[in-house]
Amino acid sequence: MTLYDAVVLAGGAAKRLGGADKPGLTVGGLALLDRVLVACRGARTTVVVGGRRATVRPVAWTGEEPPGGGPLAALGAGVRKVSAEIVLVLSADLPFLGEQTVPALLDALGGGPHEGVLLTDPGGRDQPLVAVYRTEPLRRELALLATEHGSLTGLPLRLLTAELDLARIAAGPSAAFDCDTWQDVVSARARIREHGHVLDEWITAVKAELGIDLDVDTGVLLDLARDAAHGVARPAAPLTTFLVGYAAAKAEKDGPQAVADAARKAVALANRWADETDGTEETAKPAGTAKPAGTVKPAGTVRAEGTAGADRGSKADGAKGTDAG
Predict the structure, then answer these.
(1) CATH number at residue 77
(2) Which of 7, 70, 125, 193 would you label with 230, given CA atoms 20 to 30 Å apart?
(3) Sign of torsion, CA 15 17 20 24?
(4) How far apart are the first and last CA of the chain?
């Protein structure tokens, strides 16, 4: 895995938000800054440039001098605190970075000749605050700009990116989405609750809130919850998933494998439970009971051989289907 440090810019006046505390605004129950910190949790050291506050994970803090000097001055302050050869640079208002954005940037930089890789939004615009840079050339150009202009205060980021050899990769539909206005915040909060995103976003928020870093196979757990609800009783679904999580926490295996193994055992148990329930009427008859001699079935009624067994078989076959909802 590529070793990198991260600098997150969390200052600024947020004038288009009426001076609101933008990094502290919540989307999906998580502060914008915390959502960014979750996305870059693989960083060896994370430096946040801005006012100190409680965060979802430990970070180092710094600030530009003078305060409010703009993004280039903030970047200069943050870069002074890192030591890795590669630095990830992010703004603190990106609610939808996702788990793949940072690895994609790092992979694109790799061992190639470029001095950095930045994201471009769906409109093709450069996003220098969603980027990775090689630390040495970044420091070099920041120092040259400070010498040329007397300081970095008030300088635009394009002066920096124009001097670096940068590659570019296209963002997904939302990775570069930032919250500059109240309408942006409203849109982000609405998107979080869309059907196709809500479970992943909820799991991300819960993991951050509980301080756990675990890849969750949502499909496995949803299948387990469905089988427990259908085969046992509806309240069994949340109770069973809790017990699976507890068992996984006590296991000596790595987290994802422990969850998968515990879930597999619980699913098998739920299916056996359901099979017994389906066969209760047949298996409950005392052994050796028979119809009185001479009993005649009404005309035209014929029992289809193997029907009950086929029903049970089709249920077992269908129990493994994925409903990732």
Answers:
(1) 3.90.550.10
(2) 193
(3) negative
(4) 32
- On the 0-12 / 13-18 / 19+ scale of CB atoms within 10 A, 189 is middle
Q: Range with the lowest mean pLDDT among 25-34, 200-209, 242-251, 299-308?
A: 299-308
Are residues 66 and 9 part of one domain?
yes
> For residue 314, what are the domain limits?
214-282+307-325
How many Å apart are CA 165 and CA 280, to the nearest integer?
72
Amino acid at 167: A
Name the one residue in this structure whose structure tokens are 């992979």. 107
Mean pLDDT (whole number) for 139-163 = 95
Question: How far apart (Å, rounded) are the C-alpha atoms in residues 11 and 172?
Answer: 26
Strand order in the sheet with 126-134: 60-62, 46-49, 5-9, 86-91, 126-134, 116-120, 166-170
Residue 199 located in a structural domain: no
CA distance 91 to 233: 47
Residue 110 belongs to a domain:
yes
Interval 175-227: pLDDT, tens: 888 898 999 899 888 888 775 567 777 777 777 777 777 677 778 788 888 88
SS3 of 286, please?
Answer: coil
Say yes or no: 185 and 224 in one domain.
Answer: no
The Cα 45–Cα 67 span in angstroms is 23
194-228 as b/e: b if 16+ CB within 10 A = eeeeeeebeebbebbeeeeeeebeeebbbbbbbbb
- Residues 244 and 154 both lie in one domain: no
183 and 228 both lie in a single domain: no
Query: Tell me, what's the pLDDT at 127?
Result: 94
